[in-house]
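User: Show me sequence and structure for the first protein, then do the same for the second.

Assistant: Starting with the first protein.
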Amino acid sequence: METKRRQSPQIRVGVVGTGFMGRVHARSIRQSGARLVGVAGSTGERAAEAAAAWGAERAFASAEALIDSGAIDVIHVCVPNHLHAPLTLKALDAGLAVVCEKPLATDAETAALMAARASDEGLLGFVPFVYRFHPMVREARARVRDLGRLSLVQGGYLQDWLLSPEDDDWRVDPDLGGPGRVVGDIGSHWCDLVEFVTGDRIAKVSAQTAVVVPERATHAPVRTEDVSTVQFTTANGALGTAAVSQVAPGRKNRLFLEISGAEGSVAFDQERPDWLWVGGREGSQLVQRDPASLSDAARPYSPLPAGHPLGYHDCFDAFVADAYTALGGQVPDGLPTFADGARAAVITAAVLESAETGGWVLC
């Protein structure tokens, strides 16, 4: 179906949510050259503060007022997870394109509904699985075809920001963040990378979850998992393992992915994002992010010469730029859409079901 959006000479953007992620989105919106027309938050005061700090044209009294204003073409939804679905569906009903933070919804059925609604209405929806936009992730994806038949996928995502009982956040509450905290919050990023880089789907999972910190400042008992381990099999028969944790001391954002095949291996570590490990029977090497030698798929996402590090903000800038390119009618390869967000919700649900039942669950 042909996509549609309100037409204006310059893309007009609104942001709902005034926290960390709202600030990240606002920066990339400005970087793209789009107009940051408005900001809405949980209160008018917070919206006004954010609008002034982020260079937005005005603050709106509520998300609903921003959506209904007729002043924007696309809205970025950066609010607690339980609000993603109602605000996104309202925005789609208003004819807006939507960038919605992950998880797309707190359950797989609602996420599928959101993806279907956008498709049926001919509107575009994007989910910021921004780790796809590391140049060396694109390089790994380009090299997978040289690895031969894949046999093993391993890695995970480790953080420590919820390590102590004093550490607390709305994500801990399943009524606000959803029933799968570590799985849906950071495990979804890792699983998305697996399917994106390999071109293969996770077919079934066997998982465990655990609460390591049973009481927190405002949550007792804690009802969402701090850690999870997952075994899986892909549709093409590769085996996989992953560990995700928000209580791993010293690990801030250690997203690691290694893929082994009959002819070679590749590994990406977000804590060393300018390098890709390439392994072979006769020897291994570290490949530096250098636009002069990268594949055609990776080079567009490597704007700086080798030796000038790229990082998270650069990935977000590239994601937003590609999303806005899609609004103009040309969808760049690898742009994560609502369909990808709905897919991540299916895997999250399967992991949680497996952890509860103790058996293998199809994805």
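Switching to the second protein now.
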Amino acid sequence: MKPTPFYTKLAHISISILAIGFIAVIGKSVLAPLIIALLIALLLIPSASFLERKLRFPRAAAAFTVLLVITGGVVGLMVLLGSQMSDFSLELPAFQKQLMLSLDDLQHWISHSFNINNRQQAAYINQTAETALGHGTEFISTTLISLSSSLLFLVFTFLYTFFLLLHRGLLLRFMVALFNENHSPVVLEVVERVQYIIRKYIVGLLLQMAIVATLTCAVFMLLGIKYAFLLGLLTGILNVIPYVGIFTSLVLSAVVTFATGDAAHVLFVAIAVVCVHLIDGNYIMPKIVGSQVKLNTLTAVLGLVVGEMLWGVTGMFLAIPVIAIAKVIFDRVEGLKPWGMVLGEDDMAAAQVTIPADEELPPLE
């Protein structure tokens, strides 16, 4: 049998990538919560299996219990963040006054440095404000739609996670039945490694988020920054998005500090966030998260860009774990190994993730 020509392979690959992208765009409302639910389910399988084996919980009761616990944790975090935002909103008048004073000083500096008089600056600001007010109704309606969509998104994510945990044995048998019986060991190995890597990755990500938030809060409190706890908590949460999240938290922290402090505090905040990011990138993430997901920087950045183009912020959150799952599959399918190679690091020996001998994976059945 003649080998398939390269141009034929290239055509097949191009058509497959376009088809996957098209399906991802039109199926966002179904696929996005389903993938998030899959990641959560992979994280919760050990807990659900423990309740079933040790405490003799029925599968449905075990799935609902672990989901209820993690939902309570998320709600608690949101309540904590909401309380901090509520305290911040009480000082909005003072915040706006300080911001206007800072903008007034900036206006005088621009006038003195660039010979643009205050009247020209005021005209430009008024024009911008009128344009923004003209779109005010549209913005409010879009915000309300977005809130209702987010609530629906969370409800479907909860339901998908519950049913994935409930029917995980059926889904495993389905995946094994899709392939030839000779390939069953490979399929089971891929499932086990995906479960192991994703579980370790998500736990490491949560631990990294907690450490970064704690470090940032401590540094901001030592510097005497107002709303240190709120800014530190936001920095830890936004840090989940690689590269982009830390920049967003830096801008947000600088703006809030600029309106509530002085230029020296803004400089200290910027230095503090950069230092925390350096500690995170060189020590925390490689030890906690990076040891489980071995992707090169180019792949990670491209994944973030493509994820944002397809699904916005949700796509940026899901880009890294989805690529990590794809790499596990590529590394164990003969015809796809080159793709697994290009997604990983230069040193492929170091990129192989092995499950420790004492690591017991809970059965999917």
